[in-house]
Amino acid sequence: MRKAVQGLLFTATALVVAAAGVGGTLLYQRLTSPDTSAVDAQAAALAQDLRQDLNAGFYSAGGGTYGGQFTEGTIVAQVEEHGGALLSIDADGALGHTAEVMLGLVPPTGTTVSARAYPVRCYRFTFARGSSSVEHTDLTCPNTQSDGRPGSLAAEMGGLLARQPAGAGAHRKMSATGYDHTPDGATRFLNDKGLVATKDTVTDLAAKEASTDVYAVALRVNGVCHYLRMDASSGAADLVPLWAAPADEQKRCRVGQAVTASALYGTDPAKEG
Questions:
Q1: In a 10 Å sphere around its CB, with 0-12 CB exposed, 13-18 middle and 19+ buried, how is residue 246 labelled?
Q2: Other CB atoms within 10 A of residue 270 CB
Q3: Which residues contact 60 (CB under 8 A, 6 or more apart)?
Q4: What confidence tens digit (pLDDT) does each residue in 69-108 have?
Q5: If we measure between CA atoms, which residue out of 119, 112, 122 comes closest to residue 32?
Q6: Sheet of 121-127, strand order
Q7: Residues 6+ apart with CB under 8 A from 10
Q8: Nearest CA to 240 among 153, 165, 175, 163?
Q9: Whole-structure pTM over 0.90, yes or no?
């Protein structure tokens, strides 16, 4: 009987110790794991931006209009507004598109919260035609730099954001009407519209006609690969013409990539009847 009681006491003690150990582990994890709620909220807000982009003919309560066609530059601008960078984008036409982004690199535009509240996180966004097609999921961030070499991709992307053009017109929507589809015309457009500033260094400019109205340009601004989409069509005033290339295209920075990136997303309400 005494041995049985001792056995029960030993078992009970072991359970208490085990429970304390599990509780302690969970408490330690809670204290040491970063709170991702703030950056997850930015991912959700980015998904909502994309839904609005794809919702052709939708009118906001304030009278603004969402929807219509947009460029890869629109996506890049929105990702940066939410504190991140575009890692890659695969455009598969009617079959859908996949964009991978890294958020938490800097506090989102307009916030005053400490950067420590935004741990670096990666997400995959998928979308096709219409706002209901947008979905996003968590993604394990790559453990190498964009070119596959060992190193921190987050540090690389942070450096990329720090070397963005100093011009006040970054990500501003505008048409390239009146500018020749030549390297000289592209340079004048960049300078005249304030897309780059005098202290910015523009190199490695290569250009090619992407279509009848569109001139695609690959160039480096302060060492960062950018794409310029010069469009003189009637709807070009609503398009973002200049943006940083995705991380996985930074090393090569070829004009062929700029041509591919010049394709439009979304639908034109005027063509929908």
A1: buried
A2: 12
A3: 66
A4: 889 999 999 999 999 999 999 976 556 899 999 999 988 8
A5: 119
A6: 85-91, 97-103, 121-127, 135-139
A7: none
A8: 175
A9: no
